[in-house]
Each structure stands twice: as C-alpha cells, then as structure tokens.
Amino acid sequence: MSTLLLVLVVTLGVIVLTPVSDRIRVPQPVLLTIFGLAIALVAPGNPLSFDPALILPVVLPPLLFAATQRTTVTEFREHAGAVFTLAVGLTLATVAVVAVVAHAVGLPWSVAWVLGAIVSPPDPVAATAVARRLRLPHRLVTILEGEGMFNDATALVAYKVAIVAAVTGGISGGQVALELVEAVALGVLAGVVLGVVSRFVLARIHDAYAETTVTVLVPFLAYVGAEHVNGSGVLAVLALGLYLRTYGHDATSSGGWLLGRAVWSYADFLITSLVFTLLGFELVAVIRSTGTGTGTGTDTARLALLVVVTLVVFRAIWIYPAAWLSRVRARRRDLPVPTGWRESTVVAWAGMRGVVTVATAVALPEVVASGEPLPNRAEVVTVALVAVLVTLVVQGLTLTPLTKWLRVGSDVDEAAEVAQLRLRASGAALEQIRDEASTLDEDVRAAALAQYEGYVTAQQSIHQARAGEDEASDRRALELESVLRRASDVERQLVLEARRRGEVSAGSADEVLRDIENRALRDFA
C-alpha cells in the first residue's frame, strides 16, 4: 500500500468514524486508535512514522492553545485547588511511583525517571469528550480540562530534567532546582509578553484573515521561543492562550473572532484525530521491532502490565483522599461541596494517556552524550505506547457506562442558560439605545430600536414556545425548529439562486449566507 493511499485511508477513517463514535457512544480517540492499529497491522512496513524532532513543537502548541480557548482564568481560579492537586501533585507523584516500580523491575534509575515522566500525564481529550456528551457537571469538566492542560506542563518539565540526567549521566539537586525555576519563570514570562504583543497587533489589524493568521502563528512562536531560552514551551503556550482568552477579545473584530474559533476548533479536531490514529502505527512498529530482536518480550510485557496497574491504582489512591479533604475544608468554610464520591470515581477512572505520552515516547533520543545507545529505549517506548493503548481502550470504553451507572449528571440546562444570556445581552443593548434616543436622528433611532426590539421579542417568543417539560412543550419545540429550518432553507435557496443567475456578486451572496447560517446555528443550538 503506497503512502498516499494510506494517508487517504486514514483521512477517510477519521471522516467516517467521527460521527460513528457519537452514534455508538464510544469516545472518538478510542475508536480512532483501534482503527489505526487495525490498518497498521495489514499495512506492510511503517510508512506513516513520526519525525521525533518535530512532534513536540508541531503537535503540542496548537492542541494546548485550542484547549485554552474553551475555558477562562476565572473557571480555573474557582477550581484551582483541585486542578493544582491533580496537575502538579498527582503528576509528580506518579513520576516518582512509576520510576520506583520500573527500577524494581530492572530499569536503571535514569531511564526509570524518564519512563515515569512520559506516562504521568493523562490526556483530557477522551475524558472531556465523554463528559460533554453526558452533560457532566461543569466543574467536573473544568477540573479534567485544567488537569489535562497543566499536567502536560508539569510532565514535560519533569521529562526535560529526566532526559538531561539520562543523556549526560547525572544531574545535581541544584541543577534540577535551577532547571525547574527557569522552565516555569521563563515559560510564563514568554507567554505573557507575547500575549501583550499579540493583543497590541490584533487591535490594529481589523481584518479577519490577518487576525486569524496571527493567532495561528503565535502559539508556535511562544513554544519555540520559550524553549530557546530554556523555558517551558508548554507553559508559554498556556500563558499566551489564557491571556488572549481573557484580554484579547475586545482587540479582535467579530469576523476575526468567528473565523478564529472555527480554525482552532478544526485544528484541534484534525491534529488530535490524526495523532490518535497514528498511535496505532507507532505501536505496531514497536511490536515489529520487538519481534526482530531490538526489544525484549516477557520482561517488557511484565513491566508494561505493572506500569498500567500502577497508573490506574495510584490515581485512585491519590484522588479519593484529596477529594475527601477538599469536602472537609468546604464544609468548615460553609462553601459548596466541590465533588462527591461519585464524581471522584469518574475523575479517578478518567486517567487515559494520550497525545503527550505518545509524543514524548517517540521523541526519546537514541543515544547519550558519550555516543552509546540510550539504555532500554525500546522497552520505554513500548511500555509507554501500551499504557496509552490499554488505558484508552479499557477506561475509554467503560467511562460512559460508569458515569451512567453512577448517575453523575449536570443540573444546568445549557440551552436555557444560553437563551437567558442572549436576552440579557440584547436587553442591555436596547436600554443603551433608549438612553441615547433623545440625541439620535429619528430614522436612526427607529431603525436601532426596531432591530433590538424585534430580536428581544423573537427570543422571548421562542423561549415561551420551548418552555415547559411536558409532552406538549416538546412537540412545540420540534415544530418550531422544523418551521425555522424550512424558513432558513427558503432564504438560503433564494440567495444561492440569485448568485447562480449572476443577479448579485459572489461576495454579496456569501455575506448574506454568513448571516443566514449564523442565525440558523443560533436558532437550532
């Protein structure tokens, strides 16, 4: 099978399996990993291999930046304790525990620490895919996403230090402390500085395509720039993304914001899908190399089993006491109880390894400073990839039934919340227009009032038609959606026909179509 044909097959698999995963209620990363494994087993050789030098700087910046655009600093501040406990405390503890287990099995300490750093960070993609589909509590989704972002930074800093020790043959405690301080301080500084510069540039462009180009470019600049000065590229991207998410919106045009959201949503989907699919190819390549004598068999399998069990068990051992302590502190301060035992169980089971583990495993250097091969490299890569595969498949396939069985769900009706927020925003705008009414031209005042009064009235009517929880309200909601869809279809067809006949320019037609599609997306959300 040629490389081009294989790429087409992989792309087709992503296209087909993405909607299928939603229908059969299997997390998309899990299904794509299994698909990649199956394709790789029948494909001769390994034509779709990673370039280790490009994995971290190419794959991580867009994934991390896209993740920051789904949350806010305020949400993290509200759950800072839980996120810090998981993203820093649990990650570093996992590094140490896995290193001890690996050394007990026979790995040298230097390589054991590297393995611990590689497998320590869970990936939030599969977990949050399940969480959002099942409408888990918002705080739970925020905690999982926060852990997924910041544990990458913790794990990669630990990975960087462990690699230096393994390649050079040793590193002192002072050097470790210096590496950690430099990585954190310089990484955050680089991200914030680039965020300030980016906001300044965005505020002066006022073009959707140029603005989106800036937001696509700066995560890579942040990562590479921070790494160049010995900072953490991951922390730089996170700091940049959260800064722009918090302070950059008012510097961006409406078109730039819409286009940027679409671009980053697609980039997140495409890169994640391809990485999980290609995971299967890397695993098969390692299995084949083991069969040719470059790795070990029984010892590696035993180590992989012990590491996977350690990851699952130790996460639960850490989370339950931490959650209990947070509940005790909340009750003493008369604060809302953050999580119950059911939610803690979901968090404990949502420890699937993913993109970062794959990237760091495949990016392992092959030789040390003396020119000798890195000891046990094949075993480390094999164990890491097996940990990803087993946790993704086993935990990923069982997370949905577990959350349903525990009846962990959200009480928040997001559709109603969205409708209420729209009404509040439109009402505030209407009040502003009325306050300025005496200073406006009569026609201008009439036009502005008609637009917002009409919108508020329409939203109130839609809300009333959808209100209620009985069968009649469900029927009205479906009927309303059907009517609005038919009306949008008529609008769309009229504009398309006008464009087809040459009655209007393509640009004018596209502008009207954008309005129609935005309204349809809003009405059918």
Automatic annotation (TrEMBL):
Where in the numbering of this chain does the Cation/H+ exchanger transmembrane domain appear?
Answer: 15-405
Keywords, sorted A to Z = Antiport, Cell membrane, Ion transport, Membrane, Sodium, Sodium transport, Transmembrane, Transmembrane helix, Transport
- At the top level, the lineage of the source is Bacteria
Q: What is the first-listed, main subcellular location in coarse terms?
A: membrane
Q: Say yes or no: keyword Phosphoprotein present.
A: no
Chain segments annotated as transmembrane: 47-68, 80-105, 111-132, 153-171, 183-202, 269-291, 303-325, 346-368, 380-399
Membrane-topology descriptor = Multi-pass membrane protein
Compartments where located: Cell membrane
Signal peptide residue numbers: none
Instruction: Work out whether the entry's keyword set contains Transmembrane helix.
Output: yes
List the InterPro entries: Cation/H_exchanger_CPA1, Cation/H_exchanger_CPA1_bac, Cation/H_exchanger_TM
Recorded hits in PANTHER family, A to Z, give:
SODIUM/HYDROGEN EXCHANGER, SODIUM_HYDROGEN EXCHANGER 7
Write out the similarity annotation. Belongs to the monovalent cation:proton antiporter 1 (CPA1) transporter (TC 2.A.36) family.
Role of this protein: Na(+)/H(+) antiporter that extrudes sodium in exchange for external protons.
Protein's recorded name: Na+/H+ antiporter
Q: Which organism is it from?
A: Terrabacter lapilli
- Please name the taxonomic classification of the source: Bacteria, Bacillati, Actinomycetota, Actinomycetes, Micrococcales
